[in-house]
UniProtKB/TrEMBL annotation:
The lineage of its organism: Eukaryota, Metazoa, Chordata, Craniata, Vertebrata. This is Galactose-3-O-sulfotransferase 4. Pfam families: Gal-3-0_sulfotr (PF06990). It is found in: Golgi apparatus membrane. Belongs to the galactose-3-O-sulfotransferase family. The gene is LOC115363993. It comes from Myripristis murdjan. It is a single-pass type II membrane protein. GO terms for molecular function: galactosylceramide sulfotransferase activity. One of its GO terms (cellular component) is Golgi membrane. One of its GO terms (biological process) is glycolipid biosynthetic process. Keywords: Glycoprotein, Golgi apparatus, Membrane, Signal-anchor, Transferase, Transmembrane, Transmembrane helix.
Amino acid sequence: SREMTFRWLATQFWRYRMAVLLLTLGVTSLDSHVNGYNMQMTRKISPPVAFLKTHKTGSSTVQNLLFRMGEREGATFAFPYYTYQFSYPDKFRAEFVDELPDGASQFDIICSHMRLDLGQLKQVMPPNTIYFTILRDPLQTFESIFSYYASTIPAFTLAKKAAEAAENKSALSLFLESPESYWDPKEHGNGLGKNPMSFDLGLNSQQWNSSWPADLTLLEETFQLVMIAEHFDESLVLLGALLKLQPEELAYVRLNARSTQDVTQLDDKIKARIRSWNNLDVVLYDFFVQLFWEKAEQYGLKRLKMEVARLRASTERIRQGCVAREGVPPGELEDLVRPWQTDTVTILGYQVQGNLTQQELGFCVRLVLPELQYHAHLYFQQYGRDMRATFRPLRLLLEEVKDVVCSCNCQ
């Protein structure tokens, strides 16, 4: 009974805190005059965009850019019906999307985590939608996923437990010595445990099969751009050309970054084993890296270099105007800008500059705002209600407390 009451109070406090956070964002404008940069709110989003948010590739940084762009331009977001992801790891279905809000004729942006099903996605987004995603070197992607999800992906959890009994061996190295002994392909939660980028893209991520060439061709034809994390600024310039964005609108800070203490250093043996275990991701990544540089050549390499320099200069000006401290531990951050933490890694954040005007504060907070807080804010702004996921556990807790009270009164 005491534990139940504590859980109820904790949930009430969380709802109150989120309401305060949403109110804080609601009264601060997205306009900004940081270091002479003025964001105008006149252009409506055109054409619509669909961003496949892949895991641990730098996608949260891109999503934040799209959140800011969409909020600035009054876009209608296609949000998950219940929470922050589209019933992941199930393949995407149109029914996972919340209803079209009153007064909207179409969805303009979709950018929450999903496992891709192109046919279903095209049922949600208009015919003229621009599709893009981001990939990262499979070595860094798998290391990051293993670190971040060590307690949630069943295969990694088994390796983590085994490593606790072993001496001088990390869970990652132990897993890679014999991954098949930990990884069950029939386990629903193991999708990201092998070839995670292929899994996110809806491909057969367990082994190469006859569908792969056709699937790659379909992805190539559908995605106007596949960004490459190792060439992030170059990717942003090409994205800016697609979406007709200025360098200032592409300014960013890297979000969801781990503490360096949580990053496992990879020796040659571990690298070789990661490549072997994630051989399909290696094929996928190499394929789209080549396509990326073909698009870069079409854009013009000299022009690309000049635009990257412009982007970096404007981004640095905006960062200096907005960010007081970077790489800040979660315990030193306010709730509004504290990233979600797992029990295996520490996710760092940013402290915003003091003495900002209301307009500057509105822009700078959004620049560093973690995914969950921004998602909740935009959902409330679009629908005028909290996310359903906020209410469902609260209702269950109220029912549990009522049952406990009833049983006590009846005794």
